[in-house]
């Protein structure tokens, strides 16, 4: 129930307004002076005030105070004197409207409802703006590595150009995020962005997901369905794991790209489509082309501009930035007061090889924030796979073969001594056959 504050010094008129708006379902509060009104404004959804009021504070001053302290509350001014000067001044300050006595109560009600609707719309727009700013803040690439800076530079340059883009990168590097940013920075940003993971859709359903189908096209097709080419009309399609697409579907996708037309399954007419296509894969697609597993002509259609995202292990300098970035996000989300990551925990994060890339790092930090009770993320909040990971520097002249030979010899000797010189028992301790033990013993001349 909206709360209306009515400020009027004429008692009879105030009672009429109070009764009318209560009958219309409003929660009504009243004030006879400007001083009294200012004590109540913060609880109001809309204010209706006479300009001429007893005391030192008139309606204009109420308007000024409200716009200064509670700018979101709409104010409607009424007066018995038709003054263009007052009206202009009130509207400049921010009055929602200006009504001259005498007036129809229904007219005032309409003005009040319009003011509330306009304010509600403003709040929705502001909430959406904050949400979008939050999304963009979370979506931006946090980096200081040269490799990622090159990626960001390519994205900025290619996003406004209406060309197809192929994104290469391991799982978890942010391929879908990058595709979304390209769309958001493009002239197509006001149209749809539709994504599809080709590996997650069974081959039998992929065609209908891409191109849609007509009612009755097959068993279970009870109504017409539009595919993503139609849903993204004028916008962008993102096809993840494109390398998993079968040869037959590759042909159909190639035709759709070349002809800029699609036909729903069971349909008789072709539909013109205008979409930008961004694809991604974590495989060596050129190798697939060379082996004949991916069509060369489709590859060249998709690979107009290629963006390769380096894995996190190749940009270690980004780990502290990303870790702190995710810590800030999840600290706010979970209502924690975590200000950072302690040195020992950060060292472990930097040493880990991150096979799951940025996605894995985000997951680890989210978990740590959820578990942490102090101001800093500590080793105790990190998963065992991070804590137990042993990172070794590879020195110049290092030989993996010699290292392995030395380790084998060490274990052979240890087992032999522990078994009291019994080679059969030593083989059992090592989990190998006696024959294998004798082979290694002879090989290393022990």
Q: What would you note in describing this structure?
A:
With 446 residues, the protein is an alpha/beta fold. It has 4 domains: 3-123, Response regulator (Rossmann fold); 146-310, Rossmann fold (3-Layer(aba) Sandwich), CATH 3.40.50.300; 316-387, Helicase, Ruva Protein, domain 3 (Orthogonal Bundle), CATH 1.10.8; 400-443. Helices cover 48% and strands 13% of the residues. It has 19 helices and 16 strands. It has helices at residues 11-23, 34-38, 59-69, 84-93, 105-139, 146-158, 175-184, 203-211, 228-231, 247-259, 285-290, 296-302, 319-333, 343-351, 357-371, 384-387, 400-418, 423-430, 434-443; strands at residues 3-7, 27-31, 46-50, 75-79, 97-100, 165-168, 193-197, 212-213, 225-226, 236-240, 261-262, 271-272, 276-281, 305-308, 340-341, 376-377. The strands form 5 sheets. It has a 5-stranded parallel beta sheet with strand order 2-1-3-4-5, sandwiched between helices. Helix 3 packs parallel to helix 4, helix 17 (400-418) crosses helix 18 (423-430) and helix 18 (423-430) crosses helix 19. The radius of gyration is 35 Å and the shape is elongated. The termini are far apart.
């Amino acid at each position: 129930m909206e709360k209306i504050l009515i400020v009027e010094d004429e008692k009879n008129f105030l009672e009429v307004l109070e009764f009318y708006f209560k009958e219309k379902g409003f929660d009504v509060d009243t004030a006879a002076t400007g001083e009294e009104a200012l004590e109540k404004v913060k609880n109001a959804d809309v204010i209706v005030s006479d300009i001429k009021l007893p005391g030192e504070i008139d309606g204009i001053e109420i308007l000024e105070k409200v716009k200064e302290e509670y700018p979101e509350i709409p104010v409607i001014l009424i007066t018995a004197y038709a003054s263009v000067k007052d009206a202009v001044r009130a509207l400049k300050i921010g009055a929602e409207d200006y009504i001259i006595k005498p007036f129809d109560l229904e007219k005032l009600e309409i003005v009040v409802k319009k003011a509330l609707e306009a304010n509600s719309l403003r709040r929705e727009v502001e909430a959406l703006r904050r949400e979008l700013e939050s999304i963009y803040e979370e979506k931006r690439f946090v980096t200081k590595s040269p490799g990622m800076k090159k990626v960001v530079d390519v994205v900025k340059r290619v996003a406004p150009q209406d060309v197809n883009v192929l994104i290469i990168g391991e799982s978890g590097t942010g391929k879908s995020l990058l595709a979304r940013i390209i769309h958001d920075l493009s002239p197509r940003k006001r149209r749809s962005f539709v994504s599809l993971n080709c590996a997650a859709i069974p081959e039998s359903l992929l065609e209908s997901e891409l191109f849609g189908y007509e009612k009755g096209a097959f068993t279970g097709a009870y109504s017409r369905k539009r595919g993503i080419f139609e849903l993204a009309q004028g916008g962008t399609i993102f096809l993840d794991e494109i390398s998993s697409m079968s040869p037959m579907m590759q042909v159909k996708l190639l035709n759709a790209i070349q002809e800029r037309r699609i036909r729903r399954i069971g349909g008789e007419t072709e539909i013109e489509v205008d979409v930008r296509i961004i694809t991604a894969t974590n495989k060596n697609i050129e190798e697939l082309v060379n082996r004949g597993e991916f069509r060369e002509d489709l590859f060249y259609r998709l690979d107009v501009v290629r963006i390769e995202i380096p894995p996190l292990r190749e940009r270690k300098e980004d780990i502290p930035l990303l870790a702190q970035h995710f810590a800030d996000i999840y600290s706010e989300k979970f209502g924690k007061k975590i200000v950072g990551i302690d040195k020992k925990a950060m060292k472990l994060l930097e040493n880990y090889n991150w096979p799951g890339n940025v996605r894995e790092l985000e997951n680890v930090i989210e978990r740590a924030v959820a578990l942490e009770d102090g101001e800093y993320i500590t080793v105790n909040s990190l998963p065992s796979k991070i804590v137990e990971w042993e990172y070794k520097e590879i020195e110049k002249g290092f030989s993996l073969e010699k290292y392995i030979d030395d380790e084998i010899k060490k274990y052979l000797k240890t087992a032999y001594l522990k078994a009291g010189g019994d080679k059969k028992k030593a083989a059992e301790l090592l989990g190998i056959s006696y024959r294998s033990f004798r082979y290694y013993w002879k090989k290393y001349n022990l």
